[in-house]
Amino acid sequence: MNRTNHYDFLGYVAFAIIILLGVPFLLGFDGFELNTFARYLALAMVAMALALSWGTAGLLNLGQAATFGIGSYVMAMHLKLAASTGNPGGMPDFMGWTNVEALPWFWQPFQSLSVTLLAGLLLPAAVAGLMAIFMFRGRITGVFVAIITLAFMVALQLVFIEEQRFTGGQNGLTGLAPLELPGWTVDTYSLPFYYLVAGCLIVALLVGMLVVRSKVGLVLRAIREDAARLRYLGYDVAAYETFVFCLSAAIAGWAGMLYTLVLEFASPTYMSVSFSLAIVIWCAVGGRESLVWASVGAILVNLAEGRLSDMFVEGWLLILGLLFIFFVIFLPRGLYGLAVAAMDRLRRSPRTEPPVPVKEG
Amino acid sequence: MDAILNQAFAGLSMASILLIVALGLAIIYGSMGVINLAHGEFVMLGAYAAWAMQSFLGFSILVSLPFIFVAIAVVGWVVERGVVHRLYRRPLDTILATWGIGIVLQQLVRMFIGPESLFVATPTILEGNTVIGAVVMSNYRLFVIAFAVAVLAATWGLMTRTEFGTRLRAVIQNREISECYGIRAEKVYATTFAYGAGLAGVAGALLTPLVSTTPSMGTYLVVDAFLVVIIGGVGSLIGTAVAAGAVGEATALFSMLMNDTLGRIAVLLAIILLIRFRPNGLFPQTIRR
Predict the structure, then answer these.
(1) Of A144, A155, A322, Cβ closest to residue B265
(2) Phi then psi for A287, rounded to 5 degrees?
(3) Which residue in A56, A90, A189, B53 has a CA-CA distance of 20 to 30 Å to A47?
(4) B240/A198 Cα distance (integer angstroms)
C-alpha cells in the first residue's frame, strides 16, 4: 500500500516533467500546437476529477459533464459580458435578439473576475453537493448513483437548451472576449497560456493525490469496499461521499473554465451524454484507481482521436466503443493495472529466491 | 373533451409501445440485475430489420414480426454470451459495457445504412381509422395496443406456466441453490437476455410506421422504458403494465399542457425522485433473498 503510493508519487513527478518540459519541447514551443495540447490537458483534468469519485470511493458519476459544463458556462458568461460592454445596457447580443429587456440578475455578478473564478469552483461544487446530500442521505449506491446523475445531467442540458434567452440555447455562448487577468491579457495561442493550463492540472492532481493519501482517502477507499461496515464503525459515510463528490465537481468546474478559454466558446454539448461517456471512457482506459493514469488515459485517447478521426471520421466512434468494451471486460483497471502488473513482475524476476521453508519442531 | 379523449388514446398507443420495450428491459433487469443501456439499440435494430424486410423482400411488418423477433433475439444472445455474462459480478461495469455496445451498434448502422431517416409503410390491412363518437383511432394503433396486451399475456404465461419460467424464477431467487439442483443458470440467463432483446426488436418494428426510423431512435425510448421499469418494480409484470399505462398517459398529458422539453424534464425528475424514494418501485415484489 505504501509502496503503491510511492510509485504514484514518482509517476506524478514524471507526468509533471513530461507535460511541463517534454511536450513543449516535442512541439517546438509552438503556441498553436500547444493550444491543441492544452485542450487535452483540460480534458485530462475532468477525467482525473471523475477518477477521484469513481476510483477512490466507487461512486460512478455519469453526470460528471454537468459540473464541467457549469464551470465552462461560468467562464463564458464572464467573457461574454466583457465582449458586450459596447452593447446597450452591456447586454450580450443574443439577449437583444430574443427581447430580454435588462441584464438578468444571475448574469450580473459575473462582471467581476474574482466572483467568476470563485463561482467556477463553488457553483459546480454546490450543485454536486446538493445532489450528493439528496442521494447519499438515502443510502443510494452503485448503479443507482449512475442513473440519477445521468438523468440529472440530461435534464440540466435540456434546461440550458430550452432557456435560449439566458443561455444562448443550442448555440451556446460564442463571440467571447479574451480573459483579462491583472497585468495579462490571455492569448490562448501562447506558451504562457499552455503553462497556465498545465500548472492548473498539476495543482489539481496534487490536491487530489493529497486527499487520496490522507486518512479521508483511506476512509473513501473503505467505503468503496464495504460501506455498511464503515457505518457500523461509526463513520458518517454520507458525509465522506458528499465531500468527494463536491471536490470532484469543483475540479471538473475548474477544468470546464479552462476548456472555455481554450476553445473560446461554451456549448450545451459540454453537458451531453456522449461527452460524459467520453470522460468515463478516458478514465476506464487510463485506470480509474490512479488520478495520474486517468489523466494519461484522457490525453492518449484524445491524441488518438486527433490523429485517427482525420483518417476515418465515421469509424472513430466505433473504434472508441470497441476499445471501451475491451477495457471494461479485459482490463477493468486500465493501463494503470497493466503498469502495476509489469512493475510487480520486474521487481520479482531478478531475484526469485524461493521463500525459506519454515521448519517445524 | 374530445381533445382530451383523443389525447388519451394517443397516450394509450404510446403506452402500448412502451410496454413492449419495458417488458424486455424489466425481464433482463429483474432476473439478472443488469441495466441494459443497449436496449434502445435493440429497438433500433428491430426497426431497421423491419425496413430491410420491407425493401428487400417486400414483407409487410406483420409478416416479418416473427423473423425480427428471432433475429434480434440472436443479437441479444450474442451480446450476452460475448460481453454481459463476463460481468455479472460487476454490475457497475455492465452499465458501461452495454453503453459501449449501444454506441457500436448505433455507429455500425450509421456507417452501413446511413444516418437519414427511413420510411416503412403501415400494413395495408390496418390502414384507415375506427371512429367512436368524436374519437378517431387509427386501426394500426389499435392493433399495437392489442398486440402489447398479447405480449404481456404471453410473457406472463412464459414466466408462470412453463418449465423455463420455473427455472428462471428459481435462478432469480437463488442462483447457487438452483445450480445445485441442476439448473444451468448461464443458459437461463442467455435465453432470458435473448427473449428481452427479441421483444425490443418487435417493439422497434411496430414503431416504424409511427415514428421516423433513425440510428438514434432508441435512445429516447429507453429512458422512458427505464422509468416504466423502475415505477413498475423489479420483477413485477403487472406493475410494469400499469406503469407503462401511467407513463404513456402522463407523457401525452404533459405534451398537451406544456411543451415537449418541459415534459421530458418532468419525466427525468420523476426518475430521480423515484429512485431516491422508492428504489424498489411502486409495486415491489417481496422475494426472500
Answers:
(1) A155
(2) 120, 110
(3) A189
(4) 51
What is the average pLDDT value for chain B, to the nearest integer?
85
Average pLDDT over residues A39-63: 92
Write out the residue range of the structural domain in which residue A238 sits.
Answer: 2-346
Domain membership of residue A361 (yes or no) is no
Q: Is residue B106 part of a domain?
A: yes
Which residues in chain B have their CB less than 8 angstroms from residue A142's CB? 91-92
Q: pLDDT (tens digit, 9 = 90+) per residue, B141-186?
A: 889 999 999 999 999 999 889 999 899 888 888 888 988 999 998 8
Q: How far is A209 from chain B (nearest CA, A)?
A: 24
pLDDT at A273 over 80: yes
Do B101 and A315 lie within an 8 Å CB cutoff?
no
Q: CB contact, 8 Å: B126 with chain A?
A: no
Greatest Cα-to-Cα distance within chain B, rounded to the nearest angstrom: 60
Q: B103 in a domain, yes or no?
A: yes
Instruction: Report the CATH number at residue B61.
Output: 1.10.3470
Residue A331: inside a domain, yes or no?
yes
Kindly report, residue by residue over B68-81, the tens digit of the pLDDT: 999 999 999 999 99
Helices (H), chain A: 2-17, 23-26, 31-51, 57, 64-83, 93-97, 113-136, 142-162, 164-167, 191-213, 215-225, 227-232, 237-263, 273-286, 291-311, 315-330, 334-348
A:B CB pairs within 8 Å: 98
Interface test with A, best of B80, B87, B268 (most A CBs within 10 A): B268
Does a structural domain hold residue A360? no
Is residue A356 assigned to a domain? Answer: no
Q: Into how many domains does chain A fold?
A: 1
Give me the domain span that covers residue B239. 2-277
Please give the tally of structural domains in chain B: 1
Mutate to test the interface with A, among B35, B96, B280 (most CBs of A within 10 A): B96
**Complex confidence, ipTM:** 0.83
